[in-house]
Amino acid sequence: MTTVTSPVTGRVIGLAAVPDPVFSGAMVGPGTAVDPVREPSAAVSPVDGVLVSLHPHAFVVVDAEGHGVLTHLGIDTVQLNGEGFEVLVHKGDTVTRGQAIVCWDPAAVEQAGRSPVCPVVALEATADSLSGLLEDGEVTAGAQLFIWR
Known about the structure:
This protein has a single domain, classed as Glucose Permease (Domain IIA), CATH 2.70.70.10. The termini are close together. It has 2 helices and 14 strands. By secondary structure, the protein is mainly beta. A hairpin with a 5-residue loop joins strand 6 and strand 7.
């Protein structure tokens, strides 16, 4: 089992509320999403593992069980070309849950015309493999979002 925690502090809104059909339709996998507080902060790793993909706007950590967890910082933020994001680690690094991965400013993302909502997705999972899935409520970075069985 893998406990997946929130990479950011904010309000959980669930994947269905994400303003992007790829995420809201769970096309990349099941999970949830967090609407972050609008202040500069670090997005942290939701699990212990290895960073197998790392971009200013998104990262994937694979844990010891082979579970890949995608954290996407905002919607269509790839179009910002890294502006407003500071990557703190390197692809291939071993990271721990709660470790800062990327510094960013959700308010600046919003001012640039993008949604700062952060999908947290269990890649290549099935919806029934997740339990305790949060769909609403306030969370702090590091709070449990779901268990991947």
